[in-house]
Write a structure and sequence with these properties.
By secondary structure, the chain is an alpha+beta fold. The protein has 16 helices and 13 strands. About 50% of the residues lie in helices and about 15% in strands. Keywords: Endosome, Golgi apparatus, Membrane, Signal, Transmembrane, Transmembrane helix.
């Protein structure tokens, strides 16, 4: 009872901070399609700047890490936990846009580069960094025509600059995009004069601006002047980046009425033209998996029905002894495995992860976690993980009690700290590397404290509460008695050895998800939106079925060859699909990504190691519970004196 009193005291002690944290986390949460904003003519539109991103380095930087024009006071937008973890740094900008008031050749500022600033710009251009901006929660896009398909596609953000050569010269120069032509698309309300923003596009240009006389507030540019009808339409005389070079930043604003309604404004952003969902190949893959699942289920039902019927019809003890296969090991099949404590811990962690994924998928499929709610997915994952600690404690304690364990507090602590501890250790090392690169992707100390707080003050007490109730319940009774002396396991055929059967078992679950995995990796590492959560939910269900069925089939074959050590084997059989996931991630890295920075490579493999470890725990737990249910079912059907 003293542990429960301690837990209650800890919860009471953390309650106030928890409330504050949850208020902060949910501060910027809204449901897409629920919060449209109307703008009258002349209303000020807040253009915000976000991080600089690159698919070559995967290291985000804040916009003002480069010497761009700054507003009088830089203000951070309120960010949720997920946005901070993603490396988003949303700040105000010096760009002034008023609703339905076009502006030409607006001067933002004039800067003279020093050697250090010129070097920074050149490095970002070499790494193909993109500048991201936001208007009314819509990301800035650059529209361009694809050459292979007659379709307008969108690039998220515009390049910092470009490399090129002057005509007749072989020397490569760096040029900056210093003139932006914004196009704000709006949908006008028929009844009122108000309008809603449905698109935010830009065309970037590099222009070496010129002016007459000395520079002051009233200086007129000769290269871009609305009075003399001179506008920027090309980058024919580009602005070079060199030490002591003067750069003038300018912008135009155009407004375009659109037929697209506010509720459909994200549709163009979510068109994955470069990676069109190959419906045929995915459906084909699902059909193969379903066909295999049907065959597996049919074989199991026929074989088991025949086996149990035959066994129950045997009349004499002699006949029973002549029977070979899974019936002979009934006295050993429920013997607790070696390292049973660790198995309880991993099953508990798997239940926690499964609960998090299931609830998150349902919310995402219902549209609660769409891309318009930046950071919502990450925030939801963290909060769900924390609250699912209740089920982790309960399931690990139930299993532990079945194995005749008595020290439930010890097993609870291990459940609360083993899986999250390993993940946090890897994450901490990766974060230190990002910090060393001065990237905005590094998680600040305050957020790190919030993560540790969520873990220690909410997740750990919940694991204890779940464990307390799980251990209080009566122990799960075995359907058959376990013999005092363990039976000797006969020598196994090469294809029934643990390593071979475990490696074979992971292929089918991986096959069920690997096409979908391609799109998930593309969205994460190539910075595209992932939004087909309904389809992902279907794939997740197929993963559950395949993990369960492959584990049951291989467990049945194992028991038939009189090997009763199925506890760990069932977990590792379906869990081995995580090994294939990591190997596929390595294949994806070398074939699809253009990462050259060693730190970025370490980050990629570090994060994919965390993902594979989580997938191992998830798929392993599904396989374990399937075999647990299966063995109890078949052995409870036998008549044993």
């Amino acid at each position: 009872m003293e542990i429960v009193r301690g837990t209650t005291h800890a919860i009471r002690h953390c309650a106030f901070v928890t409330l504050l944290l949850l208020i902060t986390v949910t501060h910027s949460f809204y449901l897409p399609g629920v919060a449209p904003q109307d703008f009258a003519k002349g209303d000020l539109l807040n253009v915000k700047v976000n991080k600089l991103t690159s698919i070559k380095t995967q290291l985000p930087y804040s916009y003002y890490s480069l010497p761009y024009c700054k507003p009088e006071k830089i203000m951070d937008s309120a960010e949720n936990l997920g946005e901070v973890l993603r490396g988003d740094r949303i700040e105000n900008s010096p760009y002034v846009i008023k609703m339905r008031e076009p502006r030409m050749c607006n001067i933002v500022c004039r800067i003279t580069l020093n050697a250090k600033q010129a070097k920074e710009f050149k490095e970002r251009i070499d790494d193909e960094y993109l500048v991201n901006m936001i208007l009314d929660n819509l990301p800035l896009v650059v529209p361009y025509k694809r050459s292979d398909i007659d379709l307008l596609v969108y690039q998220h953000g515009f390049h910092v600059g470009l490399r090129g050569q002057y005509t007749g010269s072989k020397e490569e120069k760096y040029f900056i995009h210093n003139h932006l032509t914004f196009t704000v698309k709006f949908h006008k309300d028929e009844q009122t004069a108000a309008a809603r923003i449905v698109g935010f596009e830009v065309k970037p240009f590099s222009v070496k601006h010129e002016y007459e006389g000395n520079w002051d507030d009233k200086t007129q540019l000769t290269t871009c002047n609305p009075h003399s009808k001179r506008t920027v339409t090309s980058s024919d005389s580009p602005q070079e980046i060199e030490d002591k070079k003067e750069i003038i930043f300018t912008y135009d604003v155009e407004f375009e009425e659109s037929e697209v309604k506010w509720a459909s404004r994200w549709d163009t952003y979510l068109l994955m033209a470069d990676d069109q969902i190959h419906w045929f190949s995915i459906v084909n893959s699902l059909m193969v998996v379903l066909f295999l699942s049907g065959m597996v289920a049919m074989i199991m039902l026929r074989t088991l029905y025949r086996d149990i019927s035959n066994y129950n019809q045997l009349e004499t003890q002699e006949q029973a002894q002549e029977e070979t296969g899974w019936k002979l090991v009934h006295g050993d099949v429920f013997r607790p495995p070696t390292n049973s404590d660790l198995l309880c811990v991993y099953v508990g962690s798997g239940v926690q992860f499964f609960g998090m994924v299931l609830v998150m998928m349902i919310f995402a499929a219902l549209g609660f976690l769409s891309p318009s709610n930046r950071g919502g997915l990450m925030t939801a994952m963290l909060l769900l993980w924390v609250f699912m600690g209740l089920f982790a404690g309960y399931s690990s304690a139930r299993l532990y009690k079945m194995f005749k364990g008595t020290e439930w507090k010890k097993i609870t602590l291990r459940t609360a700290f083993t899986f999250p501890g390993i993940v946090f250790a890897i994450f901490f090392v990766l974060n230190a590397l990002i910090w060393g690169e001065k990237s905005s992707g590094a998680v600040p100390f305050g957020t790190m404290f919030a993560l540790v707080f969520l873990w220690f003050c909410i997740s750990v007490p919940l694991v204890f509460v779940g464990s307390y109730f799980g251990f209080k319940k009566p122990a799960i009774e075995d359907p058959v008695k376990t013999n005092k002396i363990p039976r000797q396991i006969p020598e196994q055929a090469w294809y029934m050895t643990p390593v071979f059967s475990i490696l074979i078992g992971g292929i089918l679950p991986f096959g069920a998800v690997f096409i979908e995995l391609f799109f998930i990796l593309t969205s994460i590492w190539l910075h595209q939106f992932y939004y087909i959560f309904g389809f992902l939910f279907l794939v997740f269900n197929i993963l559950i079925v395949t993990c369960a069925e492959i584990a049951i089939v291989l467990c049945y074959f194992q028991l038939c060859s009189e090997d009763y050590l199925w506890w760990w084997r069932s977990y590792l059989t379906s869990g081995s699909s995580a090994l294939y996931l990591f190997l596929y991630a390595a294949f994806y890295f070398f074939t699809k990504l253009n990462i050259t920075n060693p730190i970025s490579g370490i980050l990629y493999f570090g994060y994919m190691l965390i993902a594979s470890y989580a997938f191992f725990v998830l798929s392993g737990t599904i396989g374990f519970y399937a075999c647990f249910w299966f063995t109890r079912l078949i052995y409870s059907s036998l008549k044993i004196d």
